[in-house]
């Protein structure tokens, strides 16, 4: 494992074999003693990605119908990154995210009810309705945002990782961010300090080729992001972000090394958002042919095709899975619509610490 040279990861089948689906969190039984995937593991991954996809599609409907408001940034197309990386994380680990974080939150284990209620601005939301789409937060799952500022989560992640290192903990802090963060000083300051102090930090760059409406090639003279990260003296790899098994394999490898005290690791997940930057974005900066080409690499379809070829999936199972996911989302919407708004009397609550005597 080189600390200076990025190492690309392969496609789903070879990645799955290389990883051996090593044991991770108790919530994800991914392998058997002989190194083969545990029964149902691929189906579990497919269901998690499908749950994110259908949740996001419902958000489009609700936003278009003015049921939810504010800015909404969809994760459609990038599901393999959130689901694959979270297979390498444990309950005690921390996750810091961006404003395109619905998928990260759901993959982390934050309930669809809590996320949907937050979208509606209801008191039962994970941020009590105060954050909305861009500021999901759930301390019980150690999910620390949802941050609206590009690269804003990176210094927070470094602080969490530093605290764990000072405690002698083996916990990992995983920070998701986009390729646009490479144009911000926060990334470079965080990468430098993380490598200097050997922080237990897993940096995951979701490179979807566009920082809002600006393509990577128009913004950066050097577009090999893994190589740039490696210049800070940390292991850095590129992975196919449309292949959930490849993401899982490289994330397991990286998280295991971080947990062993080998300092920060960087993953560049090459992915693509099928929708515009936000619901307000007319998306006139991308060629339709480019979008369609990437849709041909849909992570859900890719895994489903692999499972079909191995006799793990048929139309009936997929149809039942989809119905199950849609029914759960329907329930989340119904609960959110019936949930209360936070009372005006609580307007100043949480502005200052309640333990300090604030109202």
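-> sequence recovered:
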């Amino acid at each position: 494992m080189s600390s200076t040279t990025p190492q690309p990861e392969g496609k789903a089948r070879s990645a799955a074999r290389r990883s051996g689906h090593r044991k991770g969190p108790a919530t994800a039984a991914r392998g058997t003693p002989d190194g083969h995937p545990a029964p149902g593991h691929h189906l579990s991954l497919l269901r998690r990605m499908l749950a994110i996809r259908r949740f996001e599609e419902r958000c489009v409907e609700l936003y278009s119908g003015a049921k939810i408001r504010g800015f909404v940034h969809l994760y459609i197309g990038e599901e393999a990154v959130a689901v694959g990386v979270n297979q390498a994380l444990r309950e005690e680990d921390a996750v810091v995210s961006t404003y395109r974080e619905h998928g990260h939150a759901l993959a982390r284990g934050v309930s669809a009810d809590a996320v949907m209620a937050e979208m509606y601005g209801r008191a039962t939301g994970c941020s009590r309705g105060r954050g909305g789409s861009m500021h999901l937060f759930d301390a019980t799952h150690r999910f620390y945002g949802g941050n609206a500022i590009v690269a804003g989560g990176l210094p927070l992640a470094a602080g969490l990782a530093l605290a764990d290192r000072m405690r002698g903990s083996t916990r990992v802090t995983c920070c998701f961010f986009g390729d646009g963060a490479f144009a911000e000083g926060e990334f470079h300051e965080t990468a430098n300090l993380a490598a200097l102090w050997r922080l237990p930090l897993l940096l995951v760059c979701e490179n979807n080729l566009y920082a809002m409406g600006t393509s990577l090639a128009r913004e950066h003279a050097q577009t090999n992001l893994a190589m740039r990260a490696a210049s800070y003296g940390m292991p850095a790899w590129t992975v196919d972000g449309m292949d959930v098994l490849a993401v899982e394999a490289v994330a397991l490898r990286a998280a295991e090394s971080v947990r062993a005290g080998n300092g920060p690791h960087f993953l560049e997940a090459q992915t693509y958002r099928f929708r515009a930057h936000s619901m307000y974005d007319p998306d006139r900066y991308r060629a339709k042919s480019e979008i369609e080409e990437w849709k041909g690499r849909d992570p859900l379809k890719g895994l489903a095709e692999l499972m079909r070829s191995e006799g793990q999936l048929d139309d009936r199972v997929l149809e039942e899975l989809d119905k199950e996911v849609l029914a759960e989302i329907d329930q989340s919407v119904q609960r959110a619509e019936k949930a209360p708004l936070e009372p005006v009397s609580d307007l100043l609550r949480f502005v200052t610490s309640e333990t300090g005597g604030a109202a």
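The radius of gyration is 20 Å.
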